[in-house]
Amino acid sequence: MFRGALKEDSHKRRLYNQRFSPLRMGRPSLVWLPLSCSIVLLANPLGHKVILAIFTSIITANARLYHLPTSPASHVFASPGSSLIGHLRRYWTSYSDVKVVRLSMRLLSIAFTCVAIVLPRVAQVTAVPHGGVLSYNIAGTNYKGFTPYNTPVGQTTIQREWDSYDPITTPASGNLACNANGASLGSAQLSATVAAGSRVTAYYNQWPHTIGPVMVYMAKCPGSCTSANPSSLSWFKIDQAGLISGTLTTGLWGQGQLVANNNSWTSTIPASLPAGEYFIRHELLALHTSNQPQFYPECAQLKLTGGGSSSPSGSYLVQFPGAYKASDPGVTIDIYSQPTVTTYTIPGPPVWRG
Ligand SMILES: [Cu+2]
Description:
Layout: H1 2-20, H2 28-42, H3 45-65, H4 71-76, H5 84-94, H6 98-127, E1 133-138, E2 141-144, E3 192-195, E4 199-204, E5 214-220, E6 235-241, E7 243-245, E8 252-253, H7 254-260, E9 264-268, E10 274-286, E11 294-307
Parallel strand pairs: 3-11
Antiparallel strand pairs: 1-2, 1-4, 4-9, 5-6, 5-10, 7-8, 10-11
The structure holds copper (II) ion (CU).
């Protein structure tokens, strides 16, 4: 009799614990592993979205399973802007039925674990496409660029070698002139012959970034560009587009225009430049990561014909590296903390218009 009462008592206590302490349900690993994973995931917006989507589907499934009205579930998630913790709290109070809560915990545990395993891989995959200039149209003629991620052996193009879609993340990088490694292809290196005053279009891959300026530079080679070291040349800017309209956070940038224009950018070679061998250097400076500039330069070789006798000098000329400092206002910038600012200072020299 006494024993039976004790037994019943502990049974009641267990039920009580199950009802009011969801963390004690199931095996500890089923809770703590996913919980720690979820903390990591909540730290980034993608993780937040994924968890929210999983949670919504679990609630809907539960509601169907236990013949609960689905409206509270959708109601819980209908209010935009409220935190995930808020959603959770409202969920517990809407559905305090032990069975539902226990099943939810189990499903959530599995979901969190799966997401924790899968998400880093997803992030890795989505991190691959940055990009660069893959081809050119110069005065109506198409030129294929260098193919990155491939050996330079057997490649012959007007473009200098560049090895990956990844950004250069410091303006002091020795690769800033013509990307890594910017090498000449030697006897396989070509140059496009073009008249001064012609139009040059650079074609990118599916360019993923819409925040940041587009800049186009040229540099005269002392003799043949094929034997020139791009880091020793004096570069001048022939074209640029920074913040075209709107605010730093939501406005239209040069790169947004590039994307809208079929991932391409068209510039005009100044007509007054003297004939000779030149580099043309397209550079995208992506600013979507706060205070972490990303530089994407690619160079191609040109042989200018015609032209004039005007050359940039003085403050128009810069070197790479050297043209930018990390402390430049347009280089290290947090565009998200300035949602009302409508001006942006493009780094580097002013555009030389010939
Ligand atoms: Cu990128």
